[in-house]
Design brief:
Largest sheet: 8 strands, mixed
Number of strands: 17
Structural class: alpha+beta
Strand order of the largest sheet: 4-3-5-6-7-8-9-10
Strand content: 15-25%
Order of helices and strands: HHEEHEEEEHEEEEEHEHEEHEEEH
Shape: globular
Bound molecules: 2,5-anhydro-1,6-di-O-phosphono-D-mannitol, magnesium ion
CATH class of the largest domain: Alpha Beta
């Protein structure tokens, strides 16, 4: 018998009591929005959704049409339900308050509406990443400061990958579950529970074209992987780089691996390329919930106290023993 996302959430709520009904509604609404983003992605050129929107986001990156469509779908789906106080997105400069005409809820939703934008037009897997926080108690109204909570404060996190299958991956702090979209039924069906990342791996993911800009500990780690059987690691490594964090993380959840987008010398003042609050935090928590680890080379990503909504961070995540090794190399060189 197949278990739908709705049933899974209801059962989690009943058995464990850690999904309040407002949060359940929120997660169902996000899943519904992902279904509709999945449809737009699938139509591609037929839907006229490919190509550039000829605009830039707050980080100075060119927006694709689908970045903007996905952002709008998520806002329209979530603003009226009464479960949210505000939203924040990679594609919006500042926070989006739930309009006055709708009731206000207790949750804050953050998202990267379409991660892996450079892969949209070339028909390679992309995805939506989301993170849910609770509005701090006692704060009247909502401000950007309310969002500045460490990843450890998340109450739910997930992503939806639009690939050969559309798969929703979710954690509410009790392990990681995967749901595959059944297009005939129009619903997400539970296809894997208690996802576990193997602690060891022979596969790494990093954009090797940045090698000359890396810091010593990252160079040391990758050099040792490349030495293979003949080197200190005594085994051959394989490499993958999809340039969609969702797709790289999804592979790691499926068969292990280590993913890195470290700080590099191209833009020394930026801590990294990826964004802390709607990329690294949700992915970091999912990976930890699956038995893996996520650090910025110095400490746990989920413990970082954000200073800004669109803050960037260096990311090392995946199989626990490898992440600990890279982190140790950073500590030794410091
Ligand atoms: P995006 O949110 O604008 O799509 O950027 C984030 C993406 C990640 O999904 C991916 O890991 C990385 O950027 C790829 O970067 P690069 O093109 O430098 O390899
Ligand atoms: Mg992104």
């Amino acid at each position: 018998m197949s278990i739908s996302l709705t049933r899974y959430l209801v059962e989690q709520q009943r058995a464990k009591g850690h999904i309040p009904s407002e949060l359940r509604l929120l997660l169902e609404v996000v899943a519904r929005a992902c279904k509709s983003i999945s449809q737009a992605v699938n139509k591609g050129a037929l839907g006229g959704v490919l190509g550039s929107a000829h605009s830039e986001n707050v980080q100075g990156e060119v927006q694709k049409k689908l970045d903007i469509i996905a952002n709008e779908v998520l806002i329209e789906a979530n603003e009226w339900g009464g479960h949210l106080a505000a939203m924040a997105s990679e594609e919006m400069d500042s926070i989006y308050l739930v309009p006055n005409r709708y009731p206000q809820g207790e949750y804050l939703l953050l998202f990267d509406p379409l991660d892996g934008s450079s892969n949209i037009d070339v028909n390679v897997s992309i995805g939506t990443i989301f993170s849910v926080l609770r509005k701090p108690e006692g704060s009247l109204g909502v401000s950007e400061a309310d969002f500045l909570q460490p990843g450890a404060a998340q109450v739910a996190a997930g992503y939806c990958i639009y690939g050969p299958q559309t798969t929703l991956v979710l954690t509410v702090g009790d392990g990681v579950a995967m749901f595959t979209l059944d297009r005939e039924q129009g619903s997400f069906v539970l296809t894997q529970e208690d996802v576990q990342i193997p602690a060891d791996t022979k596969e790494f993911a990093i954009n090797m074209s940045n090698m000359r800009h890396w810091d010593t500990p990252v160079k040391r780690y990758i050099d040792e992987c490349l030495q293979g059987k003949e080197g200190v690691r005594g085994k051959d490594f394989n490499m993958r780089w999809i340039a969609s964090m969702v797709a790289d993380v999804h592979r790691i959840l499926t068969r292990g691996g280590v993913f890195m987008y470290p700080w590099d010398k191209r833009e020394p003042n930026k801590p990294g390329k990826l964004r802390l609050m709607y990329e690294a935090n949700p992915m970091g928590w999912i990976v930890e919930q699956a038995g893996g680890a996520a650090t910025n080379g110095h400490g746990r990503i989920l413990d970082i106290m954000p200073q800004q909504l669109h803050e960037r961070v260096s990311v090392i995540l995946g199989s626990r023993n490898e992440v600990e090794r890279v982190t140790r190399y950073h500590q030794e060189s410091a």
